[in-house]
Design goal:
248 residues; alpha/beta; Rossmann fold; seven-stranded parallel beta sheet
């Protein structure tokens, strides 16, 4: 299903992005590890290549810079021969109450989490349109569906990703390119693991399944949407949240 296919995952040196890369590599998909730090990206790429026996490539890139994303797509095609899958995963947090939020923190989160997805879609679309085939998966958040107190910037950006996903899906369908989004809920990562235990307990209570998710839960959903099993699925918002946003 994934043999001889090549996937780019932004923000994939660690965390959810790395889990996505490993999930695809497990099925023999070649992966391009892209992160803002070249050394971290290269280390992850080397480890995945050794573990799964696939081709890997490490490319440093800032998703807020259009030229970096264009370069990422071009290097993928030059080094691996084609580009079939692109996952817009890179993201940042700068939380604060709306009334206290600094303009710089607003701008950074919008630039990375929304503009970065826009830049990624544009970069991926050019080679995919030529090939008349492609799978684009955007990582949004339940915050984009329900809003989170203290996350006005993050919630706004992630809601924007959902609208962008639907528009891109409509525009690119005629070229056999699908565009879908995943909205993770409370996922256990290094970042969420650093929260006080009491906060983690309260978050878990909000989830009908009474447990947090894992990066692998997100990775498996991405792998499905990037596979041929999802050829007739586009413009879909897939919640992977343990029921946290039921009804949205």
């Amino acid at each position: 299903m994934f043999e001889n296919k090549n996937a780019v995952i932004t923000g994939s040196a660690r965390g959810i992005g790395r889990a996505i890369a490993e999930s695809l590599a497990e099925k023999k998909c070649n992966v391009v590890i892209s992160d803002i730090q070249q050394d971290a990206a290269q280390q992850t790429a080397n480890e995945i290549a050794a573990k799964y026996g696939v081709k890997t490539l490490a490319v440093a890139g800032n998703v807020t810079k259009k030229e970096d994303m264009t370069n990422l797509a071009q290097k993928t095609v030059e080094e691996l021969g084609s580009l079939e899958i692109w996952v817009n995963n890179a993201g940042v947090l700068r939380d604060d109450l709306l009334i206290r939020m600094k303009e710089d923190d607003w701008n950074l989160v919008i630039d990375v989490n929304l503009k970065g997805v826009f830049n990624g879609i544009q970069a991926a679309t050019k080679p995919m349109m030529k090939a008349k085939y492609g799978k684009i998966v955007n990582i949004s958040s339940v915050a984009g569906l329900i809003g989170n107190a203290g996350q006005a910037n993050y919630s706004a950006a992630k809601a924007g990703v959902l609208a962008l996903t639907k528009t891109a899906a409509r525009e690119l369908a005629s070229r056999n390119i699908t565009v879908n989004a995943i909205t993770p809920g409370y996922i256990q990562t290094d970042m969420t693991g650093a929260l006080p235990e009491a906060v983690q307990t309260e978050l878990a209570k909000m989830i009908p399944l009474k447990k947090s998710g894992t990066p692998d839960d997100i990775a498996k959903a991405v792998r499905f949407l990037a596979s041929s099993d999802a050829d007739f699925i586009t413009g879909v918002i897939l919640r992977v949240d343990g029921g946290m946003a039921i009804g949205f």
